[in-house]
Design goal:
Layout: H1 5-8, H2 26-38, H3 45-53, H4 61-72, H5 94-101, H6 114-134, H7 144-155, H8 157-170, H9 181-187, H10 190-197, H11 199-204, H12 214-218, H13 228-240, H14 244-256, H15 258-262, H16 269-276, H17 285-298, H18 317-320, H19 330-359, H20 361-382, H21 386-404
């Protein structure tokens, strides 16, 4: 694997030395040729997915520049198709972007001057700002810059924004909504995955909320992994599969620490959280990836217990990246974003309504509650929620019946 591609290239350069001239084994050269052949128009993407999953992934950044856009489901735009984003209105989160960009490129690339690193940061800021201004509905999150800097180093400043746009709207959309709850839904799959893989370990961790995985899952592990070659290789794997595979990957990391975790009493969740929130070093990526695929194939999300998959929003990337998701366009991503944001607003409103009903449950009585439900039905129709009104009302009425008995 080319662990130093970003280090051997000139700053801002888009192409490292050709793979044909690199000092790699005949086996690696043969795999690289197969991957590049799989990147030609009309080729079967399954071969590319298999290569990205197999040992050493896509080998080097020259190959990744060809393969990652295909794995993300788009054709890189021509120079004439690029968006003039500088004149677009500023995004609300640009101040936080500047703060995070100042803290970027800590671990890689190595051996660059201050001037070269400043240029990197300027390019990183430009890519992130372009994406946010072009799609202003997206909410920036801390750690997004860690993801983008990997794309910048692999693809170059000219091509990174298209990749990050597709990633943001179609692969990590849940993390860029105005609420954290869709992100937490990813983490809540962990107990179900652990249950089918190791019920004893799952019980041992049952008092520990899975929030320890937030930093890693949210940033596709880019905030946690400090070696450029390792994170680029892991991205090969994650981009080749649907969004849920990232959660399975974290579950496998937990399983790999089984003995260490059993040394800590189950009634010390703070200690367990502290250990699980930091990835072990070093990571045996190839073994973890292989085990992740075995677990994912053996226990796909639809078969997970506790109805955990049924609770996932149909608009979540966990579900919309199942199947032939590479046919989705950016417009599809925008539409799914709006549907998911609308669902979030409904759920937040429902929680507020439940709190109000609980507060006034005694004075209201059954007649008052019926009138209240009628008012909700009117509000749902007026607000354009007709298609979801029956579901919302049914859920609320179940709560009202409970309140009426207490």
């Amino acid at each position: 694997m080319d662990h130093n591609a970003a280090e051997t290239s000139l700053p801002g350069s888009r192409t490292p030395k050709g793979w044909q001239n690199q000092d790699i084994s005949p086996t690696a050269q043969a795999k690289t040729k197969r991957v590049l052949d799989a990147c030609t128009p009309g080729s079967d993407i399954e071969g590319l997915i298999q290569a990205a999953t197999s040992s050493d992934g896509l080998m080097n950044d020259e190959v990744r520049r060809r393969a990652w856009p295909i794995l993300l489901g788009y054709t890189p735009p021509l120079g004439t198709d690029r968006i003039a984003w500088q004149d677009l209105p500023p995004h609300k989160d640009e101040h936080q972007v500047r703060l995070d960009v100042d803290r970027s490129f800590i671990y890689y690339p190595r051996n660059e001057s201050e001037a070269q690193l400043e240029r990197r940061k300027s390019e990183l800021s430009a890519v992130i700002t372009q994406v946010l201004r072009t799609y202003p509905m997206l909410s920036y999150f801390q750690g997004f810059h860690d993801i983008v800097q990997v794309f910048l180093l692999v693809l170059g400043v000219d091509d990174a924004s298209a990749a990050v746009s597709h990633l943001s709207l179609l692969r990590i959309r849940d993390f860029m909504l105005p609420s954290l709850s869709p992100s937490l839904a990813h983490l809540r799959l962990l107990p179900s995955i652990l249950q089918v893989a190791d019920a004893k370990l799952c019980k041992h961790l049952s008092e520990t909320q899975p929030f320890f995985a937030l930093g890693a899952v949210l940033t596709l592990y880019a905030h946690e992994i400090q070696e450029y070659g390792d994170i680029a290789r892991l991205f090969d794997f994650l981009l080749a599969h649907g969004a849920v595979v990232s959660v399975y990957f974290f579950a496998v990391i937990i399983l790999s620490r089984r003995e260490e975790l059993f040394e800590i009493p189950a009634d010390e969740p703070e200690m367990l959280h502290s250990i699980l929130s930091k990835l072990p070093k070093p990571l045996d990526l190839e073994a973890l990836i292989s085990q992740t695929m075995s677990l994912y194939v053996g226990f796909p999300p639809e078969r997970l217990p506790f109805r955990s998959w049924a609770r996932i929003s149909p608009f979540s990337v966990l579900k919309t990246t199942r199947g032939d998701f590479r046919q989705q366009s950016l417009n599809n991503g925008i539409d799914l974003f709006e549907k998911q944001a609308s669902q979030l607003r409904r759920e937040q409103w429902l929680e507020q309504a439940k709190a109000t009903v609980w507060k006034y449950r005694r004075p209201a009585g059954r007649v008052g509650l019926a009138i209240f439900v009628g008012m909700i039905a009117f509000w749902l129709r007026r607000s354009g929620f007709e298609s979801y009104g029956s579901i919302t009302l049914r859920r609320l009425w179940e709560h009202l019946r409970f309140f009426g008995r207490h």
